[in-house]
């Protein structure tokens, strides 16, 4: 459906209409000025440091340009490129015009710092292949080594523009310079590695200069004095600061950006001294002035003549405008002088701005809606003030277009800003692909006109253009859009150690799992390391409160460490790249270690922050208007009674998903501080309203993958892994068929192998007594109990096994589940729920992790076997949760290591938490008689709340159990879904485990033999120098090979040597930890072990 | 009513080894005197606290409450109301001295004051009202024993809101007698704290035949 066109789409006027005295090139323009106002000073340059100003008249500028043009043409042909590597100043201006006079293409670039030359310059040189480079005599001498070290730069002709040129002005001739000639390449976009030069013709430049002039009343032009410190190699500095004054025939005061940055006051002093009327600066410059200029310095300024300040280098901040206007009001500065505008090099410079004299237009919108790309009016608790970038200039056609569908968007709908008109550049220099993508866009249904895609997002409202962010910088997390500058503003002002305008927010996707939000912030020189923590928490808190999001990583960067463009724009993507490759000057970093499950949504509208939620609650409770509830007052000041207080806390706990200390309500002096206190530690208590986001999506946006599974990306990933094995000439090691019963030996394809690939630790699977018991049970009870035990599936041997297990472990009672995975998933998810917390060792088996996930409890992980870390984690969060469960394993099957049970027990008691131990690999294995971790550690089994174990390993059967106090067991047997809704364990399986357990109790020597074998294997492996990781006294011994393919190959070679051992490879472990895992058994002989270790060692030595 | 002050005796209540006097005031009956009372009776700290209230009703209730406390305690001590020196314990409970214990509570329009010369005392009153999400509150805030009491009251046909408020007022009175806040409610042991419902005294506040609008409790530490 086409939408109503706003008045932004006027027909572009041609450049000729608004040209000065028929000049169609910049050369003709300067020559005209030199002839008609030759003695007039066009530029004054203030070198700073108290040095005298330098001036140049139109005539002198023309003469210098001609002389230098002759020098250039001695070394270059028309259309060649000339690199401008000159520090800001009059030499720079003369050299720029000289290039145009010589009909060579000017390529403005940043003058290199001889001690640390910018890698961008060689990169630009490779792209534009210059014939000559213009620099200063002083710089030229210092750049010898650098120039010589670069092939491209070494080949160009270097000219010292200030000293190396004699007066040859009379020899210059025009050479037919035309409007369509390329005047310059503006390198502003693209990465360092692949810079993109915007191709601008004389026609583009003159068209845009005319647009800028037409934005102002004519009467101003003549008396105008510009004052600029923006770098001359930047589009705004060059076109706005240097070309525009020449175009309208007035003067300009120039200074270097270094002068401004060192002493921001020097800008305003120059404005004051020269009675300047016009200037331009990006946002950060205004903030810097407010920050650094003292009140007594302001008194000496007179800014009353200042009528225009272009403010357009980045989305404009209302706060900045207000602060600057207020601060310099006493010096005569008028807020109306702010002339917010929008532009980019690809459209020469100026796209939108004005109307002049009105000051900034603002629009208050709902921040929450903006995150969903909607523009709706603000509400009391949800307000964001946007500043308009002005009306699209009459010669620039501006459209707001959906970047995906290319459909034009209606007013107040956010889309990409597209521009057409004579100011739009020709494309990128010799880069057809990028040029077509950027300059050749067409609006759906209107293929005749091509548009420039700006990459900026914005919307039109009542003819005013509002820029909301960069398409590429847009951070999309959890289905919401965040504009980095919003996050930056919120974060920067949260702590005095941080520098406003000096931060970068971006998303980083360094592992495939999910995008992580990073905020990098510069700290001031006064910042102390001891303040790191307070800064981290202030930043987290500010972002959570103001933006409803928490950063995953907060990085503190040394002053001026965040890269900026020459005009002072923060380079977010460059910051990200520097963080990734380690070149960012980081002084402190805080990673969110907590693996959170998002908290349930706050009940407030549009995910308003906690403070708004609290105010609304108080208003509802007292039945007053929410706008009358003051966030600086406390809930006490509203006279809430104790029942209301506990109701509030109950409700808060429900929405936050954790416990809240009720005394906070009385302790905190205000609703605001209360809402902050509820967010201590910076965890995710902010609203993450995913459910509503999903619900809001329309059906056609939903992607439904078709069956079959072979189309699924996840299937294709699996297939790729399997193919990878084949490509390396390896057999598929999975689902290998073993014939017969397996123990310390196995039969595969008719061959007997020494077997290290199963969990038959005690050799009880295959034991004739176990087999006989199973036969007897099947004879008596059949093959299935055909019902849930709670209904009619109970058989005598169920209870017998449960009671014998309980007595063996040393607990009151026991409950059987039909699978080990089911045991963990069902038990944990049943005992814990929302408002609880589960702490998992990071190497915990998947089933326990799943149980925690399904419970809805907060799931936190601590570093493997690190009791102290778990303790710290629990200390910081315990008070906020009802129940806390710590889950560890008896023996971790990846590494064969064991936790320090005594310390875990002491720790869990301190925190009033429960401790669960998964004994899958430790029951029948650890301890002198195989009673598991408690026996091994000398800790009473009753000190542990939940013992989980499996029957499928030492106990020669299948299934799992929970051993615990009898009340817990009873509760599980009556209510745990995995038990109640499952068939009872099959008689054969019960009988196998029962008989195996009885044999184990009668024959503890099996355990001793297992321990001896494990110790022997480990000793031999170490003697051979094999990497066995952290394995310690358990029958699981890894041999780490360091890469997956090597592990698989070694496994197959061992198979040929009659040894069966399974590899464990990525993604189960990290690539560098890829390994073979040897499971020792009581039945292995010393000879088998010796032979195996020797084979592994020799295969590894021979380069397996 | 004592001369110029605020408060009417509601009667005495006796527990094992302790006795207390209970006084009351209707906040609404003193609204025309609020300004006068705040100048004549309140301490400077109390007056500055007054400025912080964001709700007029809460501020007025504060003035009448402090006036009741000061009037009654003054007559016990034989000093002027403005000269009564109330301090706070570390946990924030307002106290007078080891010889005279007091505690005050309010709900709706009613303010109750308990004074005992024997034991630290806690008092709570709750206007009967519907309590939203009462089941959530019950499971979150009541101890095992209190939940048993709640269940008993429910079985007797008392509404969930009333049952909760009754159990809550007993709990609150105990906590206040101990001088701990609701945050101390978690595992605090109440075995030594005697608590009694105030049904009988409160029924005298209602004209014959009317439903009693308040439930309350008193406790001795």
Draw up the topology in text.
The complex is a heterodimer of chains A (1104) and B (221).
Chain A: H1 26-37, E1 41-46, E2 54-57, H2 58-73, E3 81-85, H3 90-101, E4 105-108, H4 120-128, E5 132-135, H5 137-142, H6 144-148, H7 151-155, E6 157-160, E7 182-190, E8 195-201, H8 202-214, H9 218-223, E9 225-228, H10 235-248, E10 251-255, H11 257-262, H12 265-273, E11 278-280, H13 283-292, H14 295-299, E12 308-311, H15 318-327, E13 338-343, E14 350-353, E15 362-365, H16 367-371, E16 384-387, E17 397-401, E18 415-420, H17 432-439, E19 441-443, E20 446-461, E21 464-470, E22 475-477, E23 480-482, H18 484-492, E24 498-508, E25 516-523, H19 532-547, E26 553-557, H20 572-581, E27 586-591, H21 610-622, H22 642-656, H23 663-667, H24 671-677, H25 690-696, H26 713-727, E28 745-748, E29 751-755, H27 768-781, H28 789-793, H29 796-809, E30 813-817, H30 820-831, E31 837-841, H31 846-855, E32 858-862, H32 867-877, E33 884-889, H33 901-910, E34 914-918, H34 933-937, E35 946-950, E36 960-964, H35 966-975, H36 977-980, H37 987-1002, H38 1005-1023, E37 1036-1040, H39 1044-1056, E38 1059-1060, E39 1062-1064, E40 1075-1079, H40 1086-1101
Parallel strand pairs in A: 1-10, 3-4, 3-5, 5-6, 9-10, 11-12, 12-13, 25-26, 29-38, 31-32, 31-33, 33-34, 34-35
Antiparallel strand pairs in A: 1-2, 7-8, 13-14, 15-16, 17-18, 18-20, 19-20, 20-21, 22-23, 24-25, 26-27, 28-29, 30-36, 35-36, 37-40, 39-40
Chain B: E1 8-15, E2 18-26, H1 34-40, H2 44-52, H3 56-77, E3 87-88, E4 94-95, E5 101-107, E6 110-116, E7 121-127, H4 134-141, H5 144-155, H6 160-178, E8 194-197, H7 199-203, E9 214-220
Antiparallel strand pairs in B: 1-2, 2-6, 3-4, 5-6, 7-9, 8-9
Helix pairs in contact in B: 1-3, 2-3, 5-6
């Amino acid at each position: 459906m086409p939408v109503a066109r706003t008045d932004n789409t006027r027909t572009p006027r041609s450049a000729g209409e608004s040209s000065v005295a028929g000049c169609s090139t910049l050369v003709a323009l300067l020559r005209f000025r030199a002839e008609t106002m030759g003695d007039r000073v066009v530029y004054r340059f203030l070198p700073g440091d108290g040095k005298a100003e330098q001036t140049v008249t139109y005539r002198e500028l023309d003469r210098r340009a001609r002389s230098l043009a002759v020098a250039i043409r001695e070394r270059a042909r028309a259309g060649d490129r000339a690199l401008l590597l000159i520090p800001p100043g009059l030499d720079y201006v003369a050299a720029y015009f000289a290039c145009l006079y010589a009909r060579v293409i000017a390529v403005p670039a940043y003058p290199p710092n001889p001690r640390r030359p910018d890698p961008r310059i060689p990169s630009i040189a490779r792209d534009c292949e210059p014939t000559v480079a213009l620099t200063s005599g002083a710089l030229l001498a210092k750049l010898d080594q650098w120039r010589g070290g670069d092939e491209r730069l070494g080949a160009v002709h270097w000219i010292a523009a200030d000293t190396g040129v004699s007066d040859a002005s009379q020899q210059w001739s025009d050479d037919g310079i035309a409007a369509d000639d390329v005047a310059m390449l503006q390198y502003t976009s693209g990465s360092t590695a692949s810079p993109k030069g915007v191709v601008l013709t004389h026609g583009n430049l003159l068209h845009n200069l005319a647009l800028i002039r037409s934005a102002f009343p004519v009467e101003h032009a003549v008396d105008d004095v510009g004052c600029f410190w923006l770098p001359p190699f930047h589009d705004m500095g060059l076109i706005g600061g240097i070309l525009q004054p020449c175009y309208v025939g007035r003067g300009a005061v120039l200074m270097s950006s270094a002068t401004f940055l060192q002493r921001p006051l020097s800008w305003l002093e120059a404005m004051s001294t020269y009675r300047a009327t016009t200037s331009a600066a990006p946002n950060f410059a205004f903030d810097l002035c407010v920050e650094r200029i003292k009140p007594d310095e302001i008194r000496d300024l007179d800014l009353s003549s200042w009528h225009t300040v272009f403010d357009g280098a980045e989305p404009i901040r209302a706060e900045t405008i207000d602060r600057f206007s207020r601060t310099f009001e006493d010096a005569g500065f008028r807020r109306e002088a702010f002339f917010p505008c929008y532009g980019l090099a690809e459209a020469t410079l100026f796209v939108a701005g004005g109307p002049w004299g009105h000051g900034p237009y603002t629009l208050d919108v709902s921040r929450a809606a903006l995150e969903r790309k909607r523009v709706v009016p603000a509400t009391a608790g949800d307000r964001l003030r946007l500043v308009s970038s002005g009306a699209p200039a009459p010669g620039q056609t501006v459209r707001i277009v959906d970047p995906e569908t290319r459909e034009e968007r209606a007013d107040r709908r956010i889309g990409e800003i597209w521009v057409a008109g004579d100011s739009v550049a020709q494309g990128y220099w010799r880069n057809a692909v990028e040029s077509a993508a950027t300059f050749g866009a067409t609006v759906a249904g209107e293929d005749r006109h091509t548009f420039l895609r700006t990459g900026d997002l914005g919307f039109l409202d009542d003819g005013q253009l509002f820029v909301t962010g960069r398409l590429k910088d847009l951070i999309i997390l959890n289905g919401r859009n965040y504009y980095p500058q919003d996050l930056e503003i919120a974060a920067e002002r949260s702590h005095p150690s941080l520098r406003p305008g000096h931060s970068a927010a971006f998303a980083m996707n360094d592992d495939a799992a999910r995008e992580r939000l990073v905020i990098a912030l510069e700290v001031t020189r006064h910042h102390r390391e001891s303040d790191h923590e307070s800064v981290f928490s202030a930043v987290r808190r500010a972002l959570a409160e103001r933006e409803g999001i928490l950063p995953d990583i907060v990085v503190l960067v040394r002053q001026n460490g965040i890269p900026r463009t020459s005009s002072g724009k923060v380079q977010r993507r460059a910051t990200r790249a520097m963080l990734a490759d380690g070149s960012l000057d980081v002084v402190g970093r805080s990673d969110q270690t907590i693996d959170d499950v998002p908290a349930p949504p706050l009940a407030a509208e549009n995910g308003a922050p906690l403070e708004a939620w609290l105010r609304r609650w108080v208003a509802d409770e007292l039945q007053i208007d929410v706008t009358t509830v003051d966030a600086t007052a406390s809930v006490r000041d509203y006279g809430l009674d104790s029942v209301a207080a506990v109701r509030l806390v109950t409700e808060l706990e429900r929405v936050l998903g954790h416990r809240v200390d009720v005394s906070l309500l009385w302790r905190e002096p205000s609703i605001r501080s209360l809402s902050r206190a509820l967010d201590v530690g910076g965890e995710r208590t902010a609203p993450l309203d995913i459910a509503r986001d999903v619900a809001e999506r329309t059906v056609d946006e939903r992607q439904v993958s078709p069956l079959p599974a072979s189309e699924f990306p996840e299937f294709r990933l699996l297939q790729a892994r399997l193919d990878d094995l084949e490509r390396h000439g390896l057999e598929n090691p999975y689902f290998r068929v073993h014939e017969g019963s397996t123990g310390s030996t196995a039969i595969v394809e008719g061959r007997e192998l020494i077997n290290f690939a199963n969990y038959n630790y005690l050799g009880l699977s295959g034991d004739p007594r176990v087999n006989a018991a199973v036969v007897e049970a099947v004879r008596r009870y059949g093959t299935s109990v055909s019902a849930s035990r709670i209904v009619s599936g109970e058989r005598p041997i169920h209870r017998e096994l449960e009671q014998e297990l309980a007595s063996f472990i040393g607990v009151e009672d026991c409950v059987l589940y039909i699978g080990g995975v089911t045991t963990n998933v069902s038990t944990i998810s049943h005992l814990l729920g929302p408002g609880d917390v589960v702490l998992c060792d990071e190497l915990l088996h998947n089933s326990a992790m799943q149980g925690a996930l399904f419970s809805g409890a907060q799931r936190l992980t601590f570093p493997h076997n690190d009791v102290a870390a778990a303790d710290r984690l629990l200390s910081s969060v315990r008070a906020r949760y009802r129940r806390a469960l710590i889950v560890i394993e008896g023996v971790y099957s990846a590494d064969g290591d064991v936790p320090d049970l005594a310390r875990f027990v002491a720790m869990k008691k301190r925190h009033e938490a429960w401790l669960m131990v998964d004994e899958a690999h430790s029951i029948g294995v650890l301890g002198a008689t195989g009673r598991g971790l408690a026996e091994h550690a000398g800790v009473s089994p009753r000190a542990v709340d939940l013992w989980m174990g499996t029957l499928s390993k030492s106990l020669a059967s299948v299934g799992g159990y929970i051993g615990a106090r009898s009340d817990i067991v009873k509760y599980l047997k009556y209510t745990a879904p995995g038990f109640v809704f499952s068939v009872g364990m099959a008689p054969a399986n019960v009988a196998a485990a029962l008989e195996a357990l009885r044999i184990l109790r009668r024959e503890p020597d099996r355990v001793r033999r297992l321990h001896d074998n494990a110790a022997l294997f480990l000793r031999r492996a170490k003697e051979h120098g094999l990497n066995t990781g952290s394995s310690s006294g358990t029958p699981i011994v890894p041999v780490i090979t360091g890469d997956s393919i090597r592990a698989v190959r070694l496994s197959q070679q061992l198979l040929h040597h009659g040894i069966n051992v399974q590899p464990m490879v990525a993604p189960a472990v990290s690539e560098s930890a890829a390994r073979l895992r040897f499971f020792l058994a009581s039945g292995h002989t010393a000879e088998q072990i010796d032979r195996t270790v020797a084979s592994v060692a020799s295969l590894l030595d021979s380069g397996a | 009513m004592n001369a110029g002050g605020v408060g009417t005796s509601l009667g005495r209540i006796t527990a094992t080894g302790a006795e207390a006097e209970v006084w009351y005031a209707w906040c609404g009956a003193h609204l025309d005197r609020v300004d006068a009372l705040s100048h004549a009776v309140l301490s400077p700290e109390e007056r500055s606290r007054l400025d912080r209230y964001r709700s007029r009703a809460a501020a007025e209730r504060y003035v009448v409450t402090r006036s009741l406390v000061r009037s009654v305690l003054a007559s016990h001590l034989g000093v002027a109301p403005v000269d009564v020196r109330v301090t706070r314990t570390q946990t924030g409970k307002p106290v007078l001295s080891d010889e005279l214990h007091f505690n005050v509570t309010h709900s709706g329009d009613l303010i109750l004051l308990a004074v005992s010369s024997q034991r630290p005392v806690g008092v709570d009153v709750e206007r009967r009202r519907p309590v939203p999400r009462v089941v959530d509150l019950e499971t979150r805030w009541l101890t095992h024993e209190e939940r048993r009491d709640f269940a008993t009251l429910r079985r007797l046909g008392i509404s969930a809101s009333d049952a909760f408020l009754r159990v809550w007022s007993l709990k609150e009175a105990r906590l206040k007698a101990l001088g701990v806040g609701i945050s101390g409610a978690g595992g605090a042991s109440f075995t030594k704290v005697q608590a009694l419902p105030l049904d009988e005294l409160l029924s005298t506040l209602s004209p014959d035949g009317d439903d009693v609008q308040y439930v309350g409790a008193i406790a001795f530490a």
